[in-house]
Amino acid sequence: MSAPAVSARGLAKRFGPREALRGLTFDAEPGRCLAVVGHNGSGKTTLLRILATLSRADAGELSVAGRSLPKESVAVRARIGVVLDDALLPSDLSLAEGLRMHADLHGVPSPEARIAELCERFGLAPRQDDPVRTFSRGMLQRAALCRALLHAPELLLLDEPSNGLDASGTALLDAEIRAHCARGGAAVLVTHDLERVAACADRALHLRSGRIDADGPAADVIRALRGGAAA
Amino acid sequence: MNAPADISHPAGMPPPAGMPPDDPDAGDRGGAYPFASAIPFAAHAAVAFAGVGWLDHLIASLAPQAVKQIGTSYLIQYYHVPAAISMYLFFLLCAVAGIVVLATGSPVWDRRAHALGLTALLLNAIVLGTGMVWGKTAWGVWWDWADPRLLTSAVAFLMYLGYSMLQDALRDDPRRAKFAAIYGIVALLNLPLVHYAIKWFGTASHPADVKMKTPEISMTLSVAMSVFPVFWLLVYRWVHDRLALAARAETVMARLRRLEEDVR
Amino acid sequence: MTGWRAFSTVVRWDVAREMRRRSTLAAMAATALVVLFVLSFAVDARRADDPRIRAGLLWVTWILAGAVGAERAFRGGRDAMTDGFLLAPIPRASLFWGRTVSTFLFTTAMSALSIPVFLVLFDASVPSAGLAWLAAVSLLALLGMSALGVLLASMTSSVRGGDVLLRLLMLPVLLPAVAAAVTGTGQLLGGQDPGIRPAALLLAFDLTFLGAGHLLFDHAAEDRT
Hints:
- Helices cover 38% and strands 27% of the residues of chain A.
- By secondary structure, chain A is α/β, with parallel strands linked by helices.
- In chain A, strands 6-7-8-3-9-10 form a six-stranded mixed β-sheet, sandwiched between helices. A four-stranded antiparallel β-sheet of chain A has the order 2-1-4-5.
- The mean pLDDT of chain A is 87.
- Chain B starts with 37 loop residues before the first helix and ends with a helix.
- By secondary structure, chain C is mainly alpha-helical.
- Chain C has one domain.
- Helices cover 78% and strands 0% of the residues of chain C.
- Chain C is built from eight helices and no strands.
- In chain C, helix 1 (3-21) crosses helix 5 (92-121), helix 2 (23-42) runs antiparallel to helix 3 (51-73) and helix 5 (92-121) crosses helix 6 (131-156).
- The longest helix of chain C is centred in the middle third of the chain and has 30 residues, at 92-121.
- Chain C is globular.
- Chain C starts with a helix and ends with a helix.
- In chain C, 55% of the residues are buried.
- Classes of the chains: A alpha/beta, B mainly alpha, C mainly alpha.
- Chains in contact: A-B, A-C, B-C.
């Protein structure tokens, strides 16, 4: 068995007096999608930002894509594809140019072909020369997925990727995540959308007030959550 | 000598460098607001100032007769010079504590840096005040553009005012400790540049200071200089404890909120 | 990706972005124009013939306009490009150098654009003798300003009310550079030889804050929310 895509041991993070994460220990396996669910303020996004090297844990050991953080953050950034709530594309440039910028920053080989391929796959080809500021919410989300996949990352880190997507967009998202895992890649999916968890995830973590409340097969965690909501 | 109104340490004088490690409950980076307790702060500052004044008076009475004949205004030098030296010492310590904060993320050192910066600002105000009084008696003007030292402390005052405003503006921000540490380092790095800029390009016309050196004056001054920083370390200690108290109150509140959440 | 390639990529795309809409340059140039005009009214341009005062006015203009540029290099919110660059596999220091150089290019363009306006409003002329020195002193000062501005703006831009905070933090630190630049510029405008001191101090200033940015930017850029 290969090394875990994410290995966290006792991860903790405080914001001033507030403890956002209180000692998380978990692994994410290659070829699997790990969903992280929980209420607003349970620490999901904080966890994702730490995995994405945008923030630093106060305590605990962490390795992402086989590299330890925060020491090897540059190497980690080369191996992850991240979707945040912002598409992170310059609004004044066209989609193709914005993607080209990220391709340059990542050193993607033959970027033109790769960009054309992704735009085609996400149904953005007709709009790829329009400025990003004219895009709707759903199109921005698709564009963000294109950007995250651009450099063929080993690990996808997705924060609420289904926000603003229509039915065909979510279907596309589910298919991409599954295809990515089938290729041997790993994904961490932060969401409150249990439909997505059911459709994509193999395993799920339920976070509650910065602690792991449940960790198990996605179906079990969903059942427990739905049961809890009904009770 | 007792620490002035140091409630949390009635025994007085715990050396700041060797103080016991804060318990982890108090060890957070969060909000520490001197301005929330402005009134007791001012009261303590006044007591501190009076205390130093009394000390200073004691020292001044040792001053040679010759100095007293020139006028008591010269005695302010015994106050001004040690205050200026302590001020630069505190600037330096604030930046050093900031480096430790950046290297380790230690909340304990963050609070030390914060308290050092605020104490330095207080000292800076005293340096400016006494410098202006000295300028008035020596050259007849409150503000003398020709005095390079006064100008340097004025620029330092603006920078450390910025430091305290940064601390205050970010009080609920998780990045406060780091940003304040960075600015503390930037401000310290800038001090030599300010010094040379004012020396070379300022409108300074008369010499940096009027030297009146007799063995007695030097001795009195050195007594003042050795007592003054010790006294200000106590003031620092008091500021530090206020910050720690505020931070601990915050932590307790956050815990209570968390507990409520967990119960729900 | 090597540091140099990362640096040049950041500069290239910052410039490409700016060329598309010229929003930073437009904001800086408009600020410079307004400040210059108001100042020339305030001091009565016809009588401000002391070259040092003229140099002072020019530098106040450039600093206020430059602060606008530094702010926009790290503007928070929806249009923020910062997270995108922070996710790229490049060292943080390369991002600092890239942003500093692109901000330097924009402030230099703004300064160059405002010189003719200044010369007309104040009916001044630049003596050709010290022209190279004048350019050197100005460029050194603008470089230091950009480095300091980028370092501080990377912190303040994501804070509410950060633009005001940036000016409060930046202006006192800029003072040595201002003093040197104004003195140097003033003497050159007056046809005097300023000697080596202004350039030496500006060089020291640049090295100090380029070095500080190189080392500290990692901490300043982290944990943006």
